[in-house]
Specification:
By secondary structure, the chain is of the alpha/beta class. It is 39% helix and 19% strand. It starts with 5 loop residues before the first strand and ends with a helix. The structure holds NADP nicotinamide-adenine-dinucleotide phosphate (NAP). This is NmrA-like domain-containing protein.
Length: 304
């Protein structure tokens, strides 16, 4: 039975990474945050974490930093996901037992042949590479994690289309489609759950969620808690898909947000996480409550 006690986190200073570092520390893992030379974000790291500087493009620098680590969790930002191949090679050379790549979004295993899969090609390639490397090195394992949308983060940034300040909402199609969503601390707990269940999670691509939710459900909760009606506008998924695909044809990767909205919200999209596909039970990760998440967001935003 594999035991994981020491964990190196790449990108631990980021939006999601800080939550992963915090949850790993709270669960008793010895955590080392690896950060780029000159990173201005190390003040975001909680007390109790060791901090080491690495050169993400150097095999030797990464191998030295991974020495003595049981697991590497990569939470590098989207622009840096291509650097992970060298990190995988360095992890194997350092004797790391488990590598978790920077996935944390839609299930990239299922979109390889779709337009959105073109934008996610680098992430898809890293999981392919991990599969190949784990076959060659049986003591090296990996786990991928799809979490769906960052829900608390998305609400705060307004990218879920709900704006309680100006009392508006923009939905896709009917707004009734449910999709997979996760709060950032919950994803941190999911990483803890994976590393506490190393045998059950080895060489698997897993899916977890805080909950499945629809745009109309969020709107109903906002209206109930704030006591005001939102002005709701709707866009058709066919129109959004066309906009996204036209942008993509011109090499404009801002298409991602359009195609992501179609992926999640279009009527019939079918991207809610089914109980059958969910790994929440496997890693003992409880589901969360949509209403209390929305309530906490409204309260912090001063909207209730
Ligand atoms: N599901 C969703 O809704 C959703 C939303 C956003 C992101 N994501 C995914 O979640 C993962 C983490 O995203 P995030 O938003 O947490 O990441 P982020 O905050 O943008 O970046 C995380 C860290 O990556 C490090 N980094 C290394 N090389 C970098 C480079 N070349 N440019 C910029 N940063 C670099 C930085 O750490 P140092 O400065 O310490 O080196 C940074 O703090 C990614 O896979 C992303 O695609 C999912």
């Amino acid at each position: 039975m594999v035991s994981i006690k020491t964990v190196a986190v790449l990108g631990g200073t980021g939006n999601l990474g800080t939550h992963i570092v915090q949850e790993l520390l709270s669960a008793g893992f010895a955590v080392t945050a690896l950060t780029r030379e000159g990173s201005s974000s190390t003040d975001k790291l909680p007390a109790g974490v060791e901090v080491k500087t690495v050169d993400y493009t150097s095999f030797d620098s990464l191998r030295a930093a991974f020495s003595g680590q049981d697991a590497v969790v990569s939470v590098v930002g989207t622009t840096a996901v291509g650097n992970q191949k060298i990190a995988v090679d360095a992890a194997i050379a350092a004797g790391v037992k488990r590598f978790i790549p920077s996935e944390f979004g839609i299930n990239t295993r299922e979109v390889r042949d779709r337009p959105i899969g073109k934008i996610l090609a680098v992430k898809i390639g890293i999981v392919d590479y991990l599969q190949e490397k784990a076959k060659e090195n049986p003591s090296f394992t990996w786990t991928g994690l799809t979490t769906g949308s960052f829900f608390d983060w998305g609400l705060q940034l307004g990218i879920l289309g709900i704006n309680p300040k100006d009392q508006t909402a923009n939905i896709v199609d009917s707004g009734n489609e449910k999709w997979q969503a996760s709060n950032l601390p919950q994803i941190g707990k999911g990483i803890v759950g994976i590393l506490q269940h190393p045998d059950e999670t080895a060489n698997k691509y897993l899916a977890t969620a805080s909950f499945n939710v629809s745009q109309n459900e969020i709107i109903a909760i906002v209206e109930e808690l704030s006591g005001s009606k939102l002005t709701v506008t709707s866009q058709s998924s066919a129109e959004l898909r066309k906009i996204g695909e036209e942008k993509l044809a011109k090499g404009d990767y801002s298409a991602f947000l359009d195609l992501l909205r179609v992926h999640n919200y279009a009527d019939g999209a079918g991207n809610a996480l089914s109980e059958e596909k969910s790994a929440n039970k496997l890693i003992e990760l409880p589901y969360e409550d949509v209403r209390s998440t929305v309530q906490s967001w409204l309260s912090k935003a001063g909207a209730i």
